């Protein structure tokens, strides 16, 4: 797939599609909502999405849009009873609920080294490892367990978000560069700056995250209870990019494979390869540390729109497959008790013991607060991160990546 060829696609825009910060993630989820076909899977997704909100919203505090100094102390309202709401749950939790430990789940560092600098971009845990973990655990390990509701909700929210993330080209590539006199990674384009046609300075990663700056960049802390505007916007993009056109653009459109969860790794590799190649093409065409031309911005935006649509179609197929044979009941508040909380904590302690590492469960539980939420997230952290060692090994990478997605 070659990006930015002179005759690649007609440069006609529709609306102002936003990709990969809040509205972009929600558009991916809105496309997925309209494309899920398995009635049982749809019911199961809705059941899982009904589980967690009350536990978060008892700590809600007021937050002013754009007040990033309040991150970590403010508690915006968290709702995720629809896929569209769930799509940005991971970003809000990371930025406002002190869940930075999961920051490394948002990208894959595939090395691009055109100058043979041999930088180190390797990590032990990333979006690919966690998508594989969750796509297996939700229907297998979690299904049928007494406390599976909570694990499944956490996992579904992250899976929806990560599938959106890896369709953004700069969540799948890390270029080697000289930075402050040393060989280093550019952290997915975060270290390359340029001047936009609007005479604004930005970096390559943020520019793609923001849908080429055609929308506001503020993180939406309060996830809306209503989805109609996203549904309408997604419908316009689906009409503009039907699956036949996506195939013509070079995207893999084998949605039957995406639905087969035994082939999940094959599917993920295809998504990542597409994003990586688009990122490489964009590097080659971008005015790194220079002035951007409008023609580059226009064509990049069309690519962003198409990635939102194909990402949503693939997410729908994945969810149809994962939930085809699960049996999660709808949330019943009468079944939630201190005994359930104790059971969750016991499972967290067991997972911690199996992990053989430091008390990540206690660490995350203490940060987030609350017996149930702390124990649940702690158990997930130990199981999927493998203790604090892996997280610490990647701390510098995530700290340098400033994206919110």
What does this protein look like?
- The protein is mostly helical and 405 residues long.
- The protein has one domain: P1 Nuclease.
- It is built from 18 helices and five strands.
- The strands form two sheets. The chain has a three-stranded mixed sheet with strand order 1-2-3, with no helix packed on it.
- The chain is globular and about 60 Å long.
- Mean pLDDT is 76; it is low at 5-19, 215-223, 337-345, 355-376 and 386-405.
In CATH, the topology is named P1 Nuclease
Envelope shape:
globular
Provide mean pLDDT, rounded.
76
Number of helices: 18
Low-confidence stretches: 5-19, 215-223, 337-345, 355-376, 386-405
When the domains are counted, the total is: 1
Fourth-tier CATH superfamily name: P1 Nuclease
Distance between the ends: 24 Å
Structural class: mainly alpha
> How do the strands of the widest beta sheet line up side by side?
1-2-3
User: How would you sum up the major sheet?
Assistant: 3 strands, mixed
């Amino acid at each position: 797939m070659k990006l930015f060829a002179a005759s690649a696609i007609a440069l006609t825009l529709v609306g102002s599609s936003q990709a990969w910060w809040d509205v972009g993630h929600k558009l991916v989820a809105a496309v997925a909502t309209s494309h899920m076909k398995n009635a049982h899977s749809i019911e199961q997704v809705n059941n899982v999405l009904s589980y967690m909100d009350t536990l978060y919203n008892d700590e809600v505090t007021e937050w002013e849009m754009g007040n990033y100094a309040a991150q970590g102390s403010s508690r915006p309202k968290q709702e995720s009873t629809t896929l569209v709401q769930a799509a940005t749950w991971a970003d809000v939790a990371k930025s406002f609920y002190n869940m930075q430990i999961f920051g490394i789940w948002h990208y894959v560092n595939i090395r691009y080294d055109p100058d043979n600098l041999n930088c180190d971009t390797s990590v032990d845990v990333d979006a690919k490892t966690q998508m594989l973990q969750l796509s297996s655990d939700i229907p297998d390990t979690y299904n049928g367990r007494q406390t599976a509701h909570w694990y499944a909700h956490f996992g579904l929210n992250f899976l929806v978000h990560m599938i959106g993330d890896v369709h953004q080209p700069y969540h799948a590539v890390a270029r080697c560069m000289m930075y402050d006199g040393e060989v280093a990674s550019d952290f997915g384009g975060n270290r390359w700056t340029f001047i936009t046609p609007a005479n604004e300075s930005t970096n390559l990663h943020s520019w793609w995250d923001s849908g080429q700056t055609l929308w506001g960049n503020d993180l939406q802390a309060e996830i809306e209870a209503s989805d109609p505007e996203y549904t309408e916007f997604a419908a316009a993009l689906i009409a503009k990019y039907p699956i036949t056109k996506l195939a013509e653009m070079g995207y893999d459109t084998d949605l039957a494979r995406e639905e087969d969860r035994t082939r999940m790794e094959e599917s993920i590799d295809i998504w990542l390869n597409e994003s990586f190649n688009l990122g490489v093409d964009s590097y080659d065409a971008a005015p790194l540390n220079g002035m951007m031309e409008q023609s580059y911005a226009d064509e990049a935006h069309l690519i962003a729109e198409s990635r939102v649509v194909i990402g949503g179609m693939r997410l729908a197929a994945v969810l149809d497959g994962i939930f085809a044979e699960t049996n999660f009941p709808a949330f019943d508040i009468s079944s939630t008790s201190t005994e359930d909380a104790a059971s969750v904590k016991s499972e967290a302690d067991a997972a911690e013991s199996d992990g053989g590492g430091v008390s990540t469960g206690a660490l995350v539980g203490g940060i987030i607060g609350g017996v149930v939420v702390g124990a649940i997230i702690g158990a997930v952290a130990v199981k999927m991160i493998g203790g604090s060692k892996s997280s610490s090994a990647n701390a510098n990478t995530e700290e340098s990546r400033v994206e919110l997605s």
